[in-house]
Write a structure and sequence with these properties.
Blueprint lengths: L5 H8 L6 H10 L4 H16 L6 H11 L4 H8 L7 H17 L10 H10 L2 H6 L1 H7 L1 H32 L10
Helix pairs in contact: 3-4, 3-5, 3-10, 4-5, 6-10
């Protein structure tokens, strides 16, 4: 029987990955079928694209419980959205939503970017708190639509990529924890 506090035991058993290679090795070492791991990662990627920024961890907990998926893998997939990818993901989502909604002019008519930029530049500090929220709500629909659409596409692509990587890794006999990589 090992002696020591629970924190010490947890630190010894759980080794933080130092890079992509070690993270992939940790993913392979989890006891779950490759399809389950790929599905969990894809759900996490979908969460990364959702417009619920700030609630992603809560969404990960909910989705991993709801779909009975490994929490750690769903969380790993959600980390696709991070400080380096935040602006490309949400900027791309907004642009995709504008394009998708422009196909339905009865629902949404896009405001030209020059007009938006001009309005935002001319706002005083007071107007940022009074007029800007209304403008952001009007332009929020393309953001939500684009986030969900790109989230589905990214999740489907990531499912097949991760499934392929897991199968290749298993064929190559990637070692489990404790063995040299």
């Amino acid at each position: 029987m090992e002696h020591g506090s629970g924190d010490e035991l947890a630190k010894r058993k759980i080794k933080k990955p130092k890079g992509l290679k070690e993270a992939f090795k940790a993913l392979l070492s989890l006891e779950a079928p490759p399809k389950t791991k790929a599905r969990a990662f894809a759900v996490g990627v979908f969460v990364a694209f959702t417009p619920t920024y700030g609630l992603h961890t809560v969404t990960v907990i909910l989705f991993s419980w709801l779909f009975r998926l490994p929490f750690s893998i769903v969380l790993l997939g959600s980390l696709v959205n991070n400080p380096w990818t935040f602006f490309p993901i949400y900027g791309g989502s907004y642009m995709a939503g504008r394009w998708l909604l422009s196909l339905f002019p009865a629902i949404y008519s896009p405001v030209p970017f020059r007009f938006l930029a001009q309005q935002l530049k001319s706002f005083t500090w007071k107007e940022w708190f009074t007029k800007a929220p209304a403008l952001f709500l009007k332009e929020g629909l393309p953001f939500v639509v684009g986030s969900l659409a790109l989230g589905v596409v990214a999740a489907v692509v990531s499912y097949f990529v991760v499934l392929w990587l897991l199968r290749v890794g298993e064929r190559r006999g990637v070692p489990r924890d404790g063995e040299p990589f």
